[in-house]
Amino acid sequence: MAEGLTPEQIRAYRIADNKLGELAAWNDELLAGELQQLQEMEIDLELLGFTDEDLAGIFGEQVVGAKPIPMRFRNLSTIPSRSRAICGF
């Protein structure tokens, strides 16, 4: 967090910070590694603003029909059965 800024500098900083996000590009390999580590720490990646579709693209996952495989199942070799999904496995 920036400290010691005047009210005018704060306003300018806020605008610049938002604009920089529009101009940014991800390093997909580094992003995937960071997200993988967060996921291993059981951080819900959707809280970071990524949809299942975003995550499927980042991790290069197969998409079933129009809906990606949920990320919590990405290490399974098959899509879990209904009973496994209900009990959280």
Question: Care to give the gist of this entry?
Answer:
This protein is mainly alpha-helical and 89 residues long. It contains four helices and two strands.
Distance between the termini: 40 Å
Biggest sheet record: 2 strands, antiparallel
Unreliable parts: 63-69, 76-89
- Shape label: elongated
Structural category: mainly alpha
Order of helices and strands: HHHEEH
Order of strands, widest sheet = 1-2
Number of domains: 1
Oligomer state equals single chain
**Percent strand:** under 5%
Average residue-wise pLDDT? 74
Total count of strands = 2
- Rg (CA only): 18 Å
Determine the number of helices (DSSP H or I, runs of at least 4 residues): 4
Q: In which range does the helix fraction lie?
A: 40-55%
